[in-house]
Amino acid sequence: MRNTHIRPTVIQLGVIALLASLQAHAQEAAPPAATPDNKDENVVVVTGFRASLNSALNTKKNSDGIVDVIKAEDIAKFPDANLAESLQRVPGVALARGDGGEGKQITVRGLNAGFTRVRINGIEGVAATGASDINGSTNRGRGFDFSVFASELFNSLEVRKTSEAAIEEGSLGATVDLRTARPFDFKDRTISFGVQEFHNTLSDKTQPRVTALLSDRWNTPYGKFGALISGAYSKRRATEEGYEAVELLSASADGGFCSPLGAATQNPANNATKGVTATNCGFNLPRTSDPTAYNNVMNRTDNYGGTVANPAAGSGAFAPRIPRYRRSQTDYERTGITNSYQWRPSSDTEVNLDFMYGKFANKRYDNYIEAISFGRTLGAANGKPQTSILDAHFNDNGSWDYGKFNGVDVRTEGLLDIYTTTFRQHVISGSHKFSDTVKVDFMAGNSNSNLNEPMRATVQFDSPNANGFSWDFRNNRNVPTLNFGIDITNPNSFSFGPQDADGTVHGQFVGRYLDTTNKLQTQAGNLSWELNDHLTTRFGLSKRKNIWTNYEVGSGANGLTLPAGVTMSDISRQITGFGSGLGGSGVPSSWAAVDLDKFLAVYNIECHCSSVPGSEYNILGQTNRRVEEKINAVYGMVDFNYDLWGIGWRGNVGVRGADTTATSTALINVNGVLQPNTGVKKYRDWLPALNLTAQLPKDVFMRFSAGKTLSRPEYTDLAPSATVSQISQSVSIGNPQLDPIRAKTYDLQAEWYYAKNAMVSLGYFHKDIGSFIQSVNERVPYNTLGLPNELLIFNGCSITGATPICPTLPNTEVVVSRKVNTAGGPLNGLEFNLQMPFSFLPAGWNNFGLLANATHVKSKITYITRVDNPTTAANEQLTQVANFTGLSPNTHNLTLYYEDAKFSARVSAAYRSAYILAVLGDVNGADYTIVDGSTNVDMSLSYNLTPNLRVSLEGQNLTDTPLRYGRDSQRNDTLLYVHSGRSFVVGLNYKF
Prior knowledge:
The protein is mainly β. It is 5% helix and 53% strand. It is a multi-pass membrane protein.
């Protein structure tokens, strides 16, 4: 039995108190951006959760646009592992979780992470991490991975949902501003120490989390100086267990199943090399398919969603490509340091210098037990065509929920992935007031984010041609019973060695090296001139340069001969305790797994050298891409503030102009020589914006905002890398000529501050999205793509008329897959928000309070699933109308809290409804990949033992909410179902 008790180490660590907390329980709110001469007087000490809510509410109330704010105390006392889990409590923000269940990225008002810009101390930042294959493997785009940073490093988060001429363009969803602590945020010397221990019920690990902050300030003859340093360190093992299908494929894909004995059409056809005859599917594989089961599977026609003609209909039932169980364990260390200096030589001048460092180091082990025949052709390792169907059952939706087979290749697979994200940022900023009416400010800085993956090694042991394999979803649609037909706990059931003469594989290994870097530089200056008591003009210039580079290279080979004296047991280990809390019956608790450490000690495949065949990197097959964006911008804006007709009117109106030049380069293999392929795109945008607030009697505020916005294409879509298949006459290529996604946005919101520190609001938003970027397959002549003709030459063929003639010539129409700009569509939504302290109740009860918000969003985008439909005479387009991918139509958040002078308690629930992960198009035999809706419940308790010492207990994901992907709206086949356990954090914080 697992020991789930928290060890007493937390007390020991608390006594030692080596490091400290930036949890801001004694932090002060950031000084308002008022006049420099009253900065010190406006410092407000935030001493609790309720006070942090009030401070954030005041910021929201005084803003011109639609803004939501979380103050430092709010973050520190929410049970949040990182910033994304704090942000999910903002109206309209939904959380996308990564491996291990931790928050990774956010969507805002239905728009995914690529549409949201994140700024740290005023400078845009990009932070990317790795992931398992089904969760996208690696983030190579603009989306910000919040899992890189600990929440303790920041003292405020601001989500700006409306545009403003003074705010840098690039966001269609929201601009998220993160600010680290500065010394002038505190009145005096401040020191805070904190220590916590984190325990997860699934990993059964208890590990440390420590934080520290030291800040001081001095009055000198040269003005006021301040210095601050803070740090956060945590160590954690994240465990995830569950089932994966990898993909859902039609029965006819990859050559179909082995036909029954005496079938009218024999499949596969006789093949002496493969051992295929009229009575055998392969060597020692008799044709054992049951005719009824076989026909039911191969002739199925009613098992797909969608609303248009489906070319895949009639291709048979849909089966999991690789049905498998997975255990994933990620050991990570997260380190963050901030350093800030401030100088205020006079009340009119201030200079700030901010540094930030973050390191997120991961070592992930994935282990699978799986069946791999269902996604293999006869030519590629003797797959599905050598597999016989013994039995089959379908549910009412057409989902193949039970199947039994002979001739199935079983595999145990292990993956070791080592990757580190390193983030560095340096920012200098300042302001000077020349007079009571004229002020200038400036900012210059850079951020650098590097994701380095020196090792991603996959090793597979095989057990070919197992009989009696079955899957059974009839008792549990999420976690099937997989019967592998062999003793999967015995290492000797598997083999690792060279391929047989008939193509039977006995194991493989695959390796990869990856390095992705984002460098962002910004210089900006602003002038503010107060014309009178009602009007202030603002002008500004900015210059930005973003450089993205991505390098990947791989290696791989079939199995090698075991060295003398080495057995399968010597390179294997046992998975134990699998399936706890997963559900399902008949799930194995153990299996013989690849031991990556032992395997690498025997086979040094990481040497990438000729002495280990197959370990050498395929240099000519590398991915090497670079995108450089230069953005010059200028803006003019007027702030206004009038009282008319008994109503206070304030806001701003302005326009921002931005010139963008994007230069994209990729190396492509031309006859064994890597050559650069380059594209340049230039565009100019003028982006007007209006924000208007009317302050009505009785603290009612009406807000209206309108503007034009844009979101630039993903770097991976711009890079002009190219892959040419001469035989199939197909090309996959990037598109450096993509335009940004542009939109017109409108917001209307009513806010009523009906009592002290209380607010209720209702808002409507509309985005008229003029264009969209999606992947399209279309037929075009090869010579219109701008690629070298030499890419068409292979095996000595000719493109000039000599023999042998190449199958694809320069004027040949090829099927090209690339991202293109397509028509956009509308996005509409409603947003409700409530902050209600129970101050109207009797003593004791008035310490309670409620936070609640809800968002409803709908959109309509026409996805082009295929440009040409060969089943129609006109080769018409196939399209699918759906929501934006990543858009949950409904999100709700609810927090009930209690706080008095010593005790604080909170429970929070966050809900997001099901959303579309991918639009597949009916041509794939399925319309969508859908992520099920989810509810996550967290809690937090804290008690002040003394004015300086606080003890806390937090719980995260108390319901152990699973993550599920479904495939097709009709069948709802399970593509993924995993859970990650509950987490608890106990800690001490001391401040003085």
